[in-house]
């Protein structure tokens, strides 16, 4: 703890500024990753308390890791304090139904286990002791049990082969399923008698208790493979273990089932009657005893992220993106129209339904630090609970503006424009075009003062204007918009992006001869596409980008998503073979003249690092300026604070090397 407060002092000293010195402030990317971020607030059953997770990066000469602990506060805003401590992170807080305990997950041994601690203070006690650790968990309604999911342990045969150095892998031969377990709980010391509630080979995902505690409803798919997530079904099973009863199998991915308050119905999310890999998630309701599922009213984006049960039996609550913001809706079970339960002037993040008349959430905007809030009663009235911003003296946050423009085919496009710190009207600045991943990602109006990955505040302090466009294919703008780049990757969205660049130039903000660009994942694909289609940019940084679509979409761990965007595999028809060639950057690489930096994580399964290797080798032989940087111990993006800082710093240095200013 002493070390942590020393870090906070260093951050504050780095960021202490005066108005007169604001334009010369030294902004270090490592400062941004060490700022606390609050998330996932949950309300106690009696509405008196809330718990939430706080995470931050730890950076020192020998350390580079993300850490999290749990805070507890009263909902009147009188006090707010750290509840868990230690060298190991804690997260996923939940209150016991009687309000006596707070539970959480932590890896304090060889795997992540579930713990509880008395709310009035005391030592944490492990609830579970299962070899492969705990994933998701939920208390039973009466608090006497906890259900959780855990993955099958490695077979004894596999362990013996590993000892004998005979551990060859046959893909798909040994499948390790996630299963649901139930653990009995009392006030006495626990015996860790977790019991699997079914024996069938099915990969469990989301689950929920019935209000009487007799039954569990859960979604499942055939294997743990991510691609099998495009289909799925929902079943029920007695909580004391027994026969699995099929409930829903509509054809697409059926998931996230929850019982209504009265237990009479089950609400779930689904693609519908067929897989929709590009994204379509609507809410449905079905009698708990079985029957025909009925669709509920469509939400704005038709891409619901989560569903929660509140105090009513005639409605549930759902969350999803809404353009550059986010929304929670109250969704009537009779098919009535969804009702947004909050204002739409900030970015709200909800992690549960209103409980005991109280809604808990975090709120933030581009220049406003993310804090925890509650709102009581029927009228939405945020009351701030946390005050982490008081621990820091932030540098000046740049001005953020949501702008719209018209693409070449008349489609309206939206994005975020971040102004350089110290912006002077009439002066033109270098423009950093930053394209998001996905393509179903979206740029939201969230606080700019945290994180290091393409940190907009950092680049704004370095004199850049930043454009973060949401081109066709982005989520949060409705299904039609999300599907608008089907079989058109890097074409219509390229026009959306470039007309956005032109818009910023026409506003007199960006200098037309000082354009740079970076993006990760699908943003990296757009970096490669832009490099093959225009020479307007002085420098480009491609992060985990797609270079060869033929190899990419059969080596990624989300093959069905990629092939869904293309309408099938290149081997299926001459038309599809030609489409892959037309949309793949590698077939136009001879057009590249712009210096291209290539950043990738060594262990990336989403976009294999071979994509960057391939482009690097070609550009080298073409004598186009390039460099390839590989990040260790990481999957689809650097997973440690220092590595994230390195990305931002390298991108800046690459831009500065080729910009003429």
CATH 2nd-level architecture of the domain at 400-658: 3-Layer(aba) Sandwich
For the largest beta-sheet, the strand count, sense and barrel status come to:
8 strands, mixed
Q: In what order do the strands lie side by side in the largest sheet?
A: 29-30-32-31-33-34-35-36
The best one-word shape is globular
Q: Which oligomeric form is depicted?
A: single chain
CATH topology name of the domain at 400-658: Rossmann fold
Q: Strand-residue fraction? A: 25-35%
User: Can you give the helix content as a percent range?
Assistant: 10-25%
Structural class by helix and strand composition: alpha+beta
Mean pLDDT rating = 92
What's the CATH H-level homologous superfamily of the domain at 400-658?
A: Alpha/Beta hydrolase fold, catalytic domain
Rg value: 25 Å
Structure description:
Keywords: Aminopeptidase, Hydrolase, Protease, Serine protease, Signal. This is Dipeptidyl aminopeptidase/acylaminoacyl peptidase. InterPro entries: 6-blade_b-propeller_TolB-like, AB_hydrolase_fold, Peptidase_S9_cat, WD40. One of its GO terms (biological process) is proteolysis. Residues 1-21 form the signal peptide. It is a single chain. By secondary structure, the chain is of the alpha+beta class. It has a domain at 400-658: Rossmann fold. Helix content is 18%, strand content 33%. It contains 12 helices and 36 strands. The strands form 8 sheets. It has an 8-stranded mixed beta sheet, sandwiched between helices. Strands 1-2-3-4 form a 4-stranded antiparallel beta sheet. It has a 4-stranded antiparallel beta sheet with strand order 5-6-7-8, with no helix packed on it. Helix 8 runs antiparallel to helix 9 (559-566). It is globular. The chain starts with a helix and ends with a helix. The model is unreliable at 1-24 (pLDDT under 50).
């Amino acid at each position: 703890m002493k070390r942590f407060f020393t870090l906070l002092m260093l951050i504050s000293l780095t960021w202490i500024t005066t108005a007169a010195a604001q334009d010369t402030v030294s902004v270090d990317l490592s400062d941004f990753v060490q700022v606390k971020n609050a998330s996932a607030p949950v309300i106690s059953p009696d509405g008196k308390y809330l718990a939430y997770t706080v995470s931050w990066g730890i950076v020192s000469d020998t350390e580079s890791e993300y850490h999290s602990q749990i805070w507890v506060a009263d909902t009147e805003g009188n006090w707010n304090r750290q509840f868990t401590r230690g060298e190991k992170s804690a997260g996923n807080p939940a209150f016991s139904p009687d309000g006596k305990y707070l539970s959480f997950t932590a890896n304090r041994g060889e795997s992540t286990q579930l713990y509880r601690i008395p709310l009035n203070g005391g030592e944490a006690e492990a609830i579970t002791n299962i070899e492969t650790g705990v994933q998701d968990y939920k208390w039973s309604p009466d608090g006497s049990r906890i259900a959780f999911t855990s993955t099958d342990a490695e077979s004894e045969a596999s362990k013996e082969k590993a000892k004998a150095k005979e551990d060859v892998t046959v893909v798909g031969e040994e499948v390790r399923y996630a299963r649901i377990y139930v653990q009995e709980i009392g006030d006495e010391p626990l015996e860790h008698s977790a019991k699997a509630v079914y024996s069938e080979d099915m990969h469990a995902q989301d689950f929920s208790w019935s209000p009487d505690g007799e039954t569990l409803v859960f979604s499942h798919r055939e294997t743990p493979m991510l691609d099998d997530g495009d289909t799925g079904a929902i079943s029920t099973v007695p909580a004391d273990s027994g026969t699995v009863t099929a409930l829903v199998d509509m054809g697409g991915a059926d998931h996230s089932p929850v019982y209504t308050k009265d237990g009479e119905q089950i609400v779930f999310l689904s693609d519908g009657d067929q897989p929709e890999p590009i994204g379509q998630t609507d809410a449905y309701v079905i009698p708990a005893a079985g029957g025909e599922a009925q669709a509920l009213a469509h939400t704005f984006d038709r891409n619901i992220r989560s569903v929660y049960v509140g105090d009513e039996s005639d409605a549930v609550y759902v969350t999803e993106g809404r353009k550059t913001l986010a929304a929670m809706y109250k969704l009537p079970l009779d098919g009535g129209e969804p009702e947004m339960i909050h204002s739409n002037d900030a970015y709200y993040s909800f992690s549960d339904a209103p409980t005991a008349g109280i809604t808990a959430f975090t709120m933030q905007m581009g220049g406003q630090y993310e804090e925890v809030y509650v709102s009581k009663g029927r009228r939405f009235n945020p009351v701030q609970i946390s005050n982490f911003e008081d621990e820091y003296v932030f540098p000046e946050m740049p001005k953020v503006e949501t702008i719209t423009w018209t693409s070449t085919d008349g489609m309206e496009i939206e994005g975020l424009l971040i102004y350089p710190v110290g912006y002077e009207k009439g002066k033109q600045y270098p423009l950093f075009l930053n394209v998001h991943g996905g393509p179903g990602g979206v740029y939201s109006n969230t606080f700019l003062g945290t994180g290091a990955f393409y940190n907009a505040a950092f680049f704004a302090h370095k004199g850049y204007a930043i454009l973060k466009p949401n081109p066709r294919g982005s989520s949060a703008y409705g299904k039609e918009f999300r599907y608008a780049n089907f079989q058109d990757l890097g074409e219509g969205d390229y026009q959306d992006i470039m007309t956005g660049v032109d818009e910023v130039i026409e506003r007199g903000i960006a200098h037309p001869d000082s354009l740079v660009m970076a993006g990760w994942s699908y943003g990296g694909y757009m970096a490669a596409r832009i490099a093959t289609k225009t020479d307007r940019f002085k420098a480009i940084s491609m992060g985990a980008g797609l270079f060869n679509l033929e190899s990419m979409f059969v080596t990624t761990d989300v093959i069905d998503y990629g092939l869904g965007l293309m309408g099938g595999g290149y081997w299926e028809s001459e038309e599809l073979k030609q489409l892959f060639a037309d949309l793949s950057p590698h077939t136009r690489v001879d057009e590249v003249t712009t210096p291209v930096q290539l950043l990738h994580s060594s262990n990336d399964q989403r976009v294999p690092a071979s994509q960057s290797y391939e482009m690097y080798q070609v550009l080298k032989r073409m004598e186009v300026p390039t460099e390839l940087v590989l990040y260790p111990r990481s999957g689809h993006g650097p997973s440690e604070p220092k590595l994230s800082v390195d990305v931002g710093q390298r991108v800046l240095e690459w831009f500065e090397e080729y910009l003429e200013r």
